[in-house]
Amino acid sequence: MNSTARDYQALMRSRLIESRLTPNAISLTGFGLCVVAAVLVWQDYFLLGGIAFIVGSVCDTLDGRYSRMSGKGTPFGAFLDSTLDRIEEGVVLTAVAFQFSDRGDDLAVSAVVVAVLASLMVSYTRARAEALGVECKVGIADRAVRVVILSAALLLTSFGLDVLDIGVYVLATLSVITVVQRIWHVRSQLVAV
Q1: Rounded to whole angstroms, what are the CA distances from 68 to 20, 22, 47, 58, 71?
Q2: What is the residue-level pLDDT of the chain in tens, covering all 193 positions?
Q3: Which 8-state DSSP code applies to residue 1?
Q4: Which residues contact 23 (CB under 8 A, 6 or more apart)?
Q5: Most CB contacts within 10 A, which of 44, 67, 89, 125?
Q6: How many CB atoms lie within 10 A of CB 71?
Q7: DSSP 6-72
Q8: How far, in Å, CA of 43 to CA of 156, rounded?
Q9: Residues with catalytic annotation?
Q10: How many angstroms separate the most distant Cα atoms in the chain?
């Protein structure tokens, strides 16, 4: 990257930081987009729902980075961000469960329930471990991986490949494995102490 491009990036970063934009505004925008995504999926608009979910999830990754970069972060903002993250994934998966229920696919509905519970437990195990002084970012299905799996399933379904159920089965399985990996990791860290 040449110096002109770096200077331009620095200027834009400076203007963004000086703006009134807050990390909480980014978090709430991401949340709003995920609610829109859920409504779109519920209404069979998988492509638009997938795009809204992706953009909302990107907001989720930006709010923390912007918070650190701008110095505008607050303890409440961190709390709000992590709380909304759990709701975002759950609300989109609830719309997916509706789709399966509408088709009479009870097994897929059950897989969504497992995926939601395991997703919550992935986050909970990390938070609880960190409260005990153990860093716990291990596991194969962190939030980014789960977002990619669900987004891919939504987008592929919109193009006529009905793989939403497969995506949910993969999501549920990998999330459960991640919970087990985190429990094992915390046990090994605490027993070793």
Answers
A1: 15, 11, 33, 16, 5
A2: 677 777 766 666 666 677 778 889 989 999 999 999 999 999 999 999 999 999 999 988 888 888 888 888 899 998 999 899 999 999 999 999 999 999 999 999 999 999 999 999 999 999 999 999 999 999 999 999 999 999 999 999 999 999 999 999 999 999 999 999 999 999 999 996 5
A3: -
A4: 63, 64, 66, 67, 70, 72, 73, 77, 81
A5: 89
A6: 7
A7: HHHHHHHHHHHHHSS--HHHHHHHHHHHHHHHHHHHHTT-HHHHHHHHHHHHHHHHHHHHHHHHHS-
A8: 16
A9: 85
A10: 59
Domains defined for the chain, CATH in brackets: 3-192 (1.20.120.1760)
- The conformation of residue 159, written as its DSSP 8-state character, comes to T
Query: Burial, 120: exposed, middle or buried (Cβ in 10 Å; 0-12, 13-18, 19+)?
Result: middle
142 burial type by CB count under 10 A (0-12 exposed, 13-18 middle, 19+ buried): middle
Indicate whether this model's pTM tops 0.70.
yes
Rg (CA), the chain: 19
Q: Do 60 and 82 contact (CB within 8 A), yes or no?
A: no
| 3-state SS assignment for residue 40 | helix
